[in-house]
Structure formats: structure tokens, C-alpha cells
Amino acid sequence: MGDGDFGRVFPNAGPVRRNCEHWGRFGSYAPRSRATVVAVMTSIANIVILTGAGISAESGIATFRGPGGLWEGHRVEDVCTPEALAADPALVHRFYDLRRAALSKVSPNAAHEALARLDREWPGALLIVTQNVDDLHERAGASRLLHMHGALKQALCAVCGERFEWYDALPPGTPCPACAAPALRPDIVFFGEIPYQMERIEAALAEADLFVSIGTSGAVYPAAGFVRMASAYGAETLELNLDRSDGSGWFDESRLGPAGQLVPQWVEQMLSRRPAR
Ligand SMILES: [Zn+2]
Q1: What is the extent of the structural domain holding 174?
Q2: Less Cβ around it within 10 Å: N or C end of the chain?
Q3: CA of 165 to the centre of ligand 1 (A)
Q4: Where is the domain boundary, 163, 188, 213?
Q5: Do 217 and 259 share a domain, yes or no?
Q6: What's the CA gap between 33 and 35, in Å, rounded?
């Protein structure tokens, strides 16, 4: 799986990527009014931020929905499923080698920089949950960060489960530094695999006073269910997105525009503890 939004590729994905259907149990929640967000914005301590492909797109990273619905010239099911990895490991490894190498050609944008600033300066609990597999949050300086769909600059041993930082090409059959099995693969959560650290994410959502979704379509579960879970636990919810998303109706407030503009504005607002406009 790659930088983000599977629903754009598989809008009727059926059971794929719906391993955590219990996330949908909050479907009866009714969004609060925007005025509620305004009222409580000054009492927020714990923040959970979900980021998706939209935030990296402004740095020039290709998303799934390229020309013809292809991801860098490939059908997503040919490079982002366990079946593809088994059938043609050379193709799949090469694909992620190229994505990894391409990271050197892009830089964090104003949205990444603003979130890193918030991470540094926010005195309360904060967790950035990203669906992206690039390293732009880290390079901007964010540290309270979780890659729920894996990371291009990590390798995963399919035998022992150990992870390793990985910066170069990763040919099939590369031996694991820990167990020596020739089983290292890109540490990417493919379609049909369960995202990482879901328990930690749920725990953070349970404690959150504010959940913010940035640059994601809201169409892909389980991430699409985070807003309802956060609301059910009592958090206020805010969406920052280029366009209205499939999940916009679940948020207390949606602000529409480029992440590079909206995110710095929101971060400034939070750090100055001004009420929302
Ligand atoms: Zn191993």
C-alpha cells in the first residue's frame, strides 16, 4: 500500500481493507455544530492528527490516482498486494525501490513543517498518524509520528518480523540481518493486510480532545472510521482537505483548501490558543 487513499482506487473495494469493521460501530453518531468546536478550542490538550496522500501531493509525490488510474504506470493491484509480491517479487521490489529513491527528489512542504512545529511546541499529548509511506513528516522534524501503512525507508523480514531502516535498493532474496532468512520485503502494508499499531491508535483516539484529518479522502477503512471513533470518545473533529471528502459529514468542521495553507493557519491558531474563527 502506498501514499494514502485506497478508496480512490477501489471505490467499491468490498472486504478488502476492511479488516477492522468494528470501527464502523459508531455509525449512529451525529456530528456537532461548528459552534461547539469554537467553544472548546481553547480547552484542548490531547490531539490526534491523521494525514493522507493530500499532504504529500503538494510536495510532488504521486498518488494512486495518476493518469489512467495508474500509480506511476502500474495498476495498484500489480504492486500493492501480497499476491503480487508472491507472483512477481522482482517487479514489486523494483517498484518500491523507485519510490524510495524518488524521496530524495522531494521535500517537506509548509504543511509538514507546520505539523513538525506543532509537535515540538504543543505541551499536551499529540500523535500524528500518517497513511503515507514517504518520510516527509520525519524530515520536517516530527517525532510523535506513526506510519500506519508502513514506510518506504524500512525493510520487513517476512520470517522473523524484524524491521530495519533501509535506504538503498532491496532486491528479492536479500538476507535478513537478524535471522539470515532471504526474506526481506518492503515494509509496506498491502491491500488485505492489517495496518500497523491499531491498538495504539485507538488508545490515542480514546484520549483525544481534538481529532484532525488532513488530506485524506475519508473513504478507506479503518482510517475512515477514526473520526467516528474519536467523536464517540468525546473529541471534537476537524477536517482540512482540498475538497469535501466522502467523510466530511462526520466532522464537526471542514476547512477546504491546500494543506500548505490550511495547516500552517490551523497550527498557528492552536499554538496561540485563539478560538477558531
Ligand atoms: Zn528475519
Answers
A1: 76-105+152-188
A2: C
A3: 13
A4: 188
A5: yes
A6: 5
Q: Is residue 71 part of a domain?
A: no
Angle at 37 between CA 35 and CA 40, to 5 degrees: 110
Does residue 149 have an active-site annotation? yes
Distance 175 CA to ligand 1 centre (A): 8
Q: From first to last of its 277 residues, what are the pLDDT tens digits of the chain? A: 444 443 333 333 333 333 333 333 333 344 555 545 544 556 899 999 999 999 999 999 877 665 566 777 888 888 999 999 999 999 999 999 999 999 999 999 999 999 999 999 999 999 999 999 999 999 999 999 999 999 999 999 999 999 999 999 999 999 999 999 999 999 999 988 999 999 999 999 999 999 999 999 877 788 889 999 999 999 999 999 998 888 889 999 999 999 999 999 999 999 997 444 4
Spacing, Cα 20 to ligand 1 middle (Å): 27
Of the candidates 93, 112, 137, 149, the residue annotated as catalytic is 149
pTM recorded for the entire structure:
0.84
CA 125 – ligand 1 centroid, Å: 34
CA distance 148 to 153: 14
> Among residues 100, 114, 6, which one has the least CA distance to residue 55?
114
Distance 200 CA to ligand 1 centre (A): 24
CATH number of the structural domain spanning residue 81: 3.30.1600.10
Whether 227 and 167 map to the same domain: the answer is no
